[in-house]
Amino acid sequence: MCGAHLPGVDLRAYPPHMDQLGIDRRRLGTGLLIFGVIGVVLAGIIAVALVGGAIAARSLDDRLLADQERIAASLTRLTVSMDSLAITTEHGSGTLQATSETLSSAQEVLGSIASTAVSAAGALDISLLGSRPFAGTSERLGELARTVTTFQEHAGALAVALDTNAADVDAMTEQIRLLKDQVNELATRVADFDRINQIVGLLTGGIILGALLTAWIAVGAALCAWVGLRLRRRPAV
């Protein structure tokens, strides 16, 4: 840096040459002093930042490894939970499918009952000697047939809806299992990541190199400030 060779040099032997070159010693000294002071201040700021980084980097590898283990364990627990959820939804799909089949069977039974009631109502709607002794029973059977037919329609609609929901639940189960496989793969990658020590080593090396560079800048800036101060204090010849 500027002035690094000057501690062993007597500056009093050189003022005439500076005057001949048209250099104002005090102005040059002021410039070197300001430059050196700014360099020292910047070096101090950088040094404080490096010290803070070094403090933050203490045991960083152990902390990162602990965080890595916690993240991997959490992801593993998440895969177990997702697997349980997939099993639950799969069972729910089976229940919906079985219920849909049961309702379909009930729909067929209700259809048979409605047909039987209609036939019985027609058979009882007879006239004997000008009277209809079973007219009331026939009407009640006809009403029962209409009610059973309504139940049959509702059972059929509900069976279709449950079958559709069962298909949706099956699709959701597949999506859950696919996502579980992806999370499991991520957990494996996190657990197998083994470059934390290398990263911390590079960070520590960078801090050391930064400290050496800062020391070099501080020494050069201090020398420039010292030379500038000496030039300002030398009287003009």
How is the CATH topology named?
Helix Hairpins
CATH class equals Mainly Alpha
Element order: H for helix, E for strand: HHHHH
Mean pLDDT: 78
Total number of helices: 5
Helix content: over 70%
Query: Which spans have pLDDT < 50 for at least 5 consecutive residues?
Result: 1-17
Protein architecture, described:
- The protein is an all-alpha fold and about 240 residues long.
- It has a single domain, classed as Orthogonal Bundle (Helix Hairpins), CATH 1.10.287.
- It is about 85% helix and about 0% strand.
- It has helices spanning about 15-20, 25-55, 60-125, 135-190, 195-235.
- Helix 2 packs antiparallel against helix 5 (about 195-235) and helix 3 runs antiparallel to helix 4 (about 135-190).
- It is rod-shaped.
A few lines on this structure:
Helix content is 84%, strand content 0%. The protein has 237 residues and is mainly α. The radius of gyration is 47 Å and the shape is rod-shaped.
Jot down its keywords.
237 residues; Helix Hairpins; 5 helices; 0% strand; disordered N terminus
Question: What is the element layout, followed by pairings?
Answer:
Elements: H1 15-20, H2 25-56, H3 60-124, H4 135-192, H5 196-233
Helix pairs in contact: 2-5, 3-4
